[in-house]
Design a protein that fits this description.
Blueprint lengths: L9 H9 L18 H16 L4 H7 L12 E5 L1 H12 L10 E5 L9
Helix pairs in contact: 2-4
């Protein structure tokens, strides 16, 4: 899962699909229209949970006769900057939904330390 629809280009998508990787791009609500907890953090966590669910992503693919199998145990989250922070946040908030964390997180240029100043 990537956290920006502009992050994966057609050539990258073709490469990933050829190697058995299904990229999923997310949009999420932005501040100041909604606060950060009830907007982007919740949106990304809910999308991750949906992608893992048998009635979620796999059901959509099956209904559209797209022959790709989702391996819910092998989902990775990828994000740049804020997207990377949201990917990391998703991994430590999945417990609230009783959902296992992602298999991997790739966070590029994202904030990781908010206390050392």
């Amino acid at each position: 899962m990537t956290l920006s629809r502009k992050a994966i280009r057609p050539a990258q998508t073709a490469f990933l699909l050829h190697h058995g990787i299904l990229p999923i791009s997310l949009d999420y609500r932005l501040c100041p229209e909604i606060d950060i907890i009830n907007g982007p953090i919740e949106d990304v966590r809910d999308a991750y949970s949906w992608a893992r669910s048998p009635s979620g992503l796999q059901a959509v693919l099956d209904a559209r006769n797209i022959r790709v199998k989702v391996d819910a145990a092998n989902i990775a989250l990828i994000g740049w900057s804020t997207g990377g922070h949201l990917a990391m946040t998703t991994s430590w908030t999945t417990k609230q939904l009783s959902v296992p964390p992602p298999k991997a997180i790739l966070a590029f240029y994202s904030p990781t330390d908010f206390e050392s100043g």
